[in-house]
Design brief:
The structure holds two protein chains of two kinds. Chain A contains 13 helices and eleven strands. Chain A is α/β, with parallel strands linked by helices. In chain A, strand 10, helix 13 and strand 11 form a beta-alpha-beta unit. In chain A, helix 1 packs across helix 2. Chain A starts with a helix and ends in a 6-residue tail after the last strand. Chain B is an alpha/beta fold. In chain B, a hairpin with a 2-residue loop joins strand 2 and strand 3. Chain B is elongated and about 60 Å long. Chain B starts with a helix and ends with a strand. Chains A and B meet through helix 4, helix 5 and helix 6 of A and helix 1 of B.
Chain lengths: 426, 133
């Protein structure tokens, strides 16, 4: 339980340290006798937390291993990234609203004069930066855009750190340069963010090492492509259940990096992924051919039965969500007692059924239950609980997964014993 | 998060629109009402003969009580803040402080500064000068 809070505690610390530094070391005595001073103090606190969290979010997006561990898996780190991003926008809007309120408390006219475009560069940049951020966040959250656009928007959001940094340093009334500890803190966190941003976006480099693979064999069919990859030199070291980012070099596929679960065991260095054509990019992967080059970055993820102490487990796979379980099932030993529920719409979609059936007959303690929608079979939390397992591992489309998770909790399954892989990563 | 963000965005937009619209209306009203009176404001009252230390001036550092030091003279601009054509926000950071350079350059770091008319208006708010030790 304490471990689960580590990410939250760390994030709050990042946001609160600059506020404390500002309160402790501000050159001018903090006096809150006047409404305008109170509004000013709130505005500054919001801005300091907002800028610190924006920096932290950029650092988080570099997928450093230390933060993946802190948030217990990359999917959770991404979820934190989204929440932090939302908080940054709310804090920075609060900042702007409080400053405007400060001047409006004198007269609405002076509030208006403040909002009007001016020749003060640092102030203007602050306004433009926030305006851009509002537009970009609205587009990325409320409008469904293509993946490439989504990435471009995310990059543009990161670039706001430059504008925000300049604004924070040079705007009239900023305490940043006069408060050495505060300045030092932002040099550290903002500097790291800017450094990582430049390294990743401008030089198009990943912090992580990428490994060269080539497509060994590929089987297309029924909306799913099963792709086997062979390492050119070094093979990826991963454990069953993890995923990696794959970037294909092919005339028919965009040169983007996308995450997929590894569905093979880590025995011989070869990697198998199974991709369902559900979007533009995944549909393009239907054109992959033998011999195409692939760059593999990873591994990521903490979703594995090996990481769980209890041995009596229920696994639930929804459709293509079966992939991490395929790699896990292969290394299962008889000291585990696992029941895999494999849920599909029609039996023809259960493309890994043969492989799993063979594993189930070979391995003691591994049971397979196929559930098909078209045969009026439904998976319910009641089914799962009746197996009286100690832990539940879910990997399915988000609506199914969240519904099951909710029902399991309602049936008294403790939150700590439900594990899931969010494969709708963005 | 989506819901909270949506509510925040709505509140933020409404608040900003309120200030912009309200301020704009006030500006229009003011322009209509102050035009005739501009000619009468040339009477300058130089009552300020008191002397202050910089520490005394520093106490008056809020938007409701704002003193400025410009060319070693002390001005109480508290009542003027809302009327400043450049907006109160350009003055407030200097309340209780030395503002000569800010007044001379309008904070743009280059020459230019305020008009003669503005300099005359400033004289209306003179309350004294800085004590030379």
């Amino acid at each position: 339980m304490r471990k689960k809070l580590a990410g939250i505690i760390f994030t709050c610390t990042v946001a609160l340290v600059p506020v404390l530094l500002w309160l402790a070391f501000s050159p001018t005595q903090l006096a809150l006798t006047d409404t305008t001073q109170k509004l000013d103090a709130i505005a500054k606190i919001a801005a300091l937390s907002g800028l610190a969290l924006l920096s932290f979010n950029i650092i988080l997006s570099a997928r450093l291993a230390v933060f993946e561990r802190l948030f217990l898996g990359l999917d959770r780190a991404y979820r934190a990234h989204r929440l932090i991003g939302g908080s940054v926008l709310i804090l920075l809007m609060t900042h702007a609203a409080m400053i405007t309120a400060k001047y409006s408390s004198i007269s609405l006219l002076s509030g208006f004069e403040f909002l009007k475009p001016s020749t003060d560069i640092a102030l203007m940049l602050g306004k433009l930066g926030l305006g851009a951020m509002v537009i970009l966040v609205v587009v990325s959250i409320y409008i469904k855009v293509k993946y490439q656009w989504f990435i471009t928007i995310q990059r543009a959001l990161g670039a706001i750190i430059f504008i925000g940094g300049y604004h924070a340093l040079f705007v009239t009334g900023s305490d940043m340069r006069a408060n050495i500890p505060l300045f030092g803190y932002f040099i550290l966190i903002g500097g790291s963010a800017v450094g990582l941003y430049i390294y990743r976006s401008i030089f198009h480099k990943s912090i992580k090492r990428k490994l060269e693979y080539i497509v060994d064999s590929v089987r297309h069919g029924d909306n799913v492509s099963v792709i086997w990859l062979k390492p050119v030199k070094a093979a990826l070291a991963f454990y069953a259940g993890q995923f990696a980012f794959f970037q294909f070099t092919s005339d028919f596929v965009d040169n983007e990096s996308h995450p997929f679960s590894i569905s093979s065991s880590s025995d011989n260095g070869n990697i198998r992924i199974a991709v369902k054509a559900s979007g533009d990019y995944t549909a393009e992967l239907g054109n992959i051919n033998e011999g195409d080059k692939v760059q593999v970055e990873g591994p990521y993820g903490q979703f594995s039965f090996t990481k769980i102490r209890t041995t009596k487990q229920v696994w639930v796979a929804g459709g293509i969500g079966v992939t991490p379980f395929l790699s896990m099932a292969q290394i299962l030993t008889s000291d585990h007692d696992v029941t895999l529920y494999y849920c599909v719409r029609t039996i023809s979609q259960a493309i890994f059924l043969g492989e799993l059936e063979k594993l189930a007959s070979d391995k003691q303690g591994f049971k397979l239950i196929l559930i098909c929608d078209d045969q009026r079979q439904r998976i319910t939390a009641n089914n799962l609980v009746s197996a009286s397992a100690e832990s539940y591992l879910l990997c399915a489309p988000p609506p199914m997964m969240h519904a099951l998770e909710k029902h399991l909790k309602r049936l008294g399954v403790p939150k700590d014993s439900i594990y899931y892989e969010d494969f709708a990563l963005t | 998060m989506k819901k909270i963000l949506f509510v925040s965005l709505v509140i933020f937009t409404m608040f900003m629109s309120y200030v912009v619209l309200g301020g704009f209306i006030q500006k229009q009203q003011k322009e209509n009402s102050t035009k005739p009176s501009v000619a009468m404001t040339s009477t300058s009252s130089t009552s300020g003969t008191d002397t202050f230390t910089t520490a005394e001036v520093a106490i008056h550092s809020t938007s409701s009580d704002c003193w400025l030091i410009i060319n070693n003279k002390v001005y109480d601009v508290s009542k003027f803040l809302g009327d400043h054509p450049g907006g109160a926000y350009t003055i407030i950071p200097y309340c209780g402080k030395e503002a000569t350079n800010a007044f001379d350059t309008q904070d743009r770091g280059r020459r230019g500064g305020h008009s003669d008319q503005a300099t005359q208006m400033l004289a209306d708010y003179l309350i004294g000068s800085i004590k030379v030790s």
